[in-house]
Amino acid sequence: MLKTPLIAVNYKVYAEATGKKALELTKKIEGAAKEYDDTVVIIPNLVDLKAVIEITELPVFAQHIDPYGPVSHTGSITAEMIREAGAAGTMINHSERRMILADIDASIRRARELGLETMVCTNNVDVTGAVAALNPTYVAIEPPELIGGDISVSTAKPEVISGSVEIVNRINPEVKVLCGAGVKRKEDVKKAVELGAEGVLLASGIVKAKDPETVTLSLLEGLH
Length: 224
Ligand code: G3P
Hints:
41% of the residues lie in helices and 16% in strands. The chain has helices at 20-33, 49-55, 79-85, 101-113, 125-132, 153-156, 158-171, 186-194, 204-207, 212-222; strands at 6-10, 39-43, 61-62, 89-92, 117-122, 138-141, 176-180, 199-202. The model has no long low-confidence stretch (mean pLDDT 97). It starts with 5 loop residues before the first strand and ends with a helix. Strand 3 (61-62), helix 3 (79-85) and strand 4 form a beta-alpha-beta unit. An 8-stranded parallel β-sheet has the order 2-1-8-7-6-5-4-3. The structure holds SN-glycerol-3-phosphate.
């Protein structure tokens, strides 16, 4: 299992993190990550997944998998495909890529069987509790209305982080709680950790930054 606390960077399908730019951005983040002994997880778009894995030593997750095995399906992405590509795990159920509960369960099981970690995004405390019962490696609580904004979850909705930590501790304390949405500054990370999160998941704060390396360094400082 990856060491926590951690910072996970979702590249989404942003132009600033696609193709050659995905590789350049990864090198910048890796440069900053080398200054610290913390885990930084890269989550590139699915087309660039393998190319990113090939140029970095940082752990790389897929943005999504489908719950199917390697059978007659078209346009799907399987746990086998991302493992073969060298991914350490996968995110699933992002607010921009929601799944039904039964498929979240099946995807977690398939990933686990193949030795892959799972980071399941949730939108509120109750969904966090439901997902914790499915035993993923991480839940990442992200209030959808704060995604892409300038006010972080730790400032706007601290109770969602502490509530998620509490419900996970009650239902399945093995699961690690991450949080995200609007995380841009070192103080956002610091507060998230103080509220009991074992790391943050963010996108625009790094992907859209003028200097992603400096921002990554500053966010890593916030973990301590
Ligand atoms: O997956 C992380 C994402 O949804 C949060 O986005 O831009 O608010 O950091 P952002």
